[in-house]
Amino acid sequence: MPIDPATAIGADLGEATFAWTASDVLLYHLALGAGTDPLDPRELRYAYEADLRVLPTFATVAATLKAADPPSVRFPGIDVDLAKVVHGTQQVVTHRPIPVEGKATARTRIADVLDKGKAAVIVQETEAADPAGDPLWTARSSIFARGEGGFGGKRGTSDRVEPPQREPDVVVDVPTLPQQALLYRLCGDRNPLHADPGFARAAGFDAPILHGLCTYGMVAKAVTDAVLDADVTRIRSWSAKFAGIVLPGETLRVRVWRDGGRLLVGAVAMDRDEAPVLSDAVLETR
Fold it and tell me: Where is each MaoC-like domain found (predicted)?
């Protein structure tokens, strides 16, 4: 079905009410690789309920943690084959620290649909609030649907964030596990692209790839640990563009530049000659 931007843009995708527990938060953090040093009190903030704090990227999975079916890309004016879809960008803005346990209602809409020629970009925006109606977070994401462009829509503008022309202030290496994608899919993203070798080959990849949102969370944690003393409550927002894939088992090199109240971040895959993984990434502090 061709994309119909007139129908899609502004479409209300409904609301979802959900709840989470400390166990859900612990599972998410462990799926990001938390707890590698179980004697480090900073790691135990992620992996032990006694002083548990919630990494803001948990907002990307909170509503779908219990999902067991592959996601669908069928919205008003949009019907896209899942095998053609990759994550484009992700941003989470927290209005206050996410509680360890809670309930929320989230409403999602299609904020925009862009025509990049060879691909369509579908932008979604989600607002989440607690039962009293107080805002918790705003999430904005885009997905690239390969081969779905050319429908005559607007192309959109560039949102590049260039790092300073100097050496980074912080460099940290982040190993991923060979089974990282199999762990992360338990957080609600059962796309077979991340587990099924045959599906991955049909989608154009040599092997299953790591979830973009897993990379997004791992890099956020690495920056928080290296620059913010593992204090997740200091994060106001975290945004990034997915510049390339990660194969489970690779090591990521994360570079950070201080820029006023912002941290500018880039991440590359060391095992593939520093192939870009995340770009245009910005962590804003409170």
Answer: 162-262
